[in-house]
Structure prediction request, 82 residues.
Amino acid sequence: MIETIDLPRCTGCGICDIVCPADVIHMTETPVESEVPGLTVTKLLPVIKFREHCITCFNCEIFCPEKIVDVHPVVKSHPRAW
Ligand code: SF4
Ligand code: SF4
Prediction:
């Protein structure tokens, strides 16, 4: 099951969202610190929205170019054919 995404290192590429067959990860506008003090900016970052739907397929961990997604090998439900 997906555990964590190291968001400070995330580029926001969205690949983890695209390759997830269970629609667990959703790209979401998230407030982040800007380089200019006092200025709030938003960045499109992945959110683990439906962790309980994760089928532990490891796609997000394998395809993340930054290798910052952590999936643990505990299968709670069986993968569907896709
Ligand atoms: S392990 Fe598979 S089902 Fe779970 S969040 Fe990652 S891509 Fe989605
Ligand atoms: S694939 Fe990796 S770098 Fe790209 S949005 Fe997902 S966590 Fe971030």
The first strand starts at residue 2 and ends at 5.
